[in-house]
Amino acid sequence: MNVHDIQQDLDEHGRFAAYLDKLQHVATADEVDLVSRVLSDPDQTMARSAVLRHLDRRAADLHLGPAYEEWARAMTGATTGHPFLAQRLREWSLLRAVTLELPWRPDDLLASSNWLQLRTAAGTNTEAIEVLAESGRTKRIRNTASTGLDHPRKS
């Protein structure tokens, strides 16, 4: 079943499941095209949700490796016009920078979503954890970061 058939033949729940399946099995060379086609679905909320799950899954697999940057550039192009998806990609890039101890700015971390702040608070970058323990957006984020500082991780 191709994306056109999915859009024609299934309700939004069926399309969502079918999109997730297609996105999980897409060849790298076809990924940008498939993401763009999914985002052309008339139910934009459902389409963005399917693509978000895909982005999170792929970014989790790629963000610590060298293939991430090219993939993120390609996905940024495919998600143009979808601010939430673009923001999530930027946050994955910031998480990558923090985790790999590449250059990053504390203000960018503090301006990021709860999702990113919580992931970072549970991470291993002491500088980022200190920033979040002091100024994280929510009590949960600050507590998670403080706990990480109280119990240093073994290398």
What does this molecule look like?
The protein is an all-alpha fold. The protein contains ten helices and no strands. It is elongated, with a radius of gyration of 18 Å. The model has no long low-confidence stretch (mean pLDDT 93).
Helix/strand layout:
Elements: H1 3-9, H2 12-25, H3 31-38, H4 44-62, H5 68-78, H6 83-99, H7 106-110, H8 114-121, H9 126-135, H10 139-150
Helix pairs in contact: 1-2, 2-4, 3-5, 4-6, 5-6, 8-10, 9-10
> Count of DSSP helices?
10
Q: How many beta strands in the DSSP annotation? A: 0
What fraction, in percent, of the residue positions are helical? over 70%
Percent of sequence in beta strands: under 5%
Flag low-confidence runs: none
Q: What is the radius of gyration computed over CA atoms, rounded to a whole number of angstroms?
A: 18 Å
Shape: elongated
How far apart, in Å, are the first and last alpha carbons?
A: 47 Å
- Largest sheet composition: none
Please provide the ordered H/E string of secondary-structure elements.
HHHHHHHHHH
Structural class by sheet pairing and helices: mainly alpha
Q: What is the overall pLDDT average?
A: 93
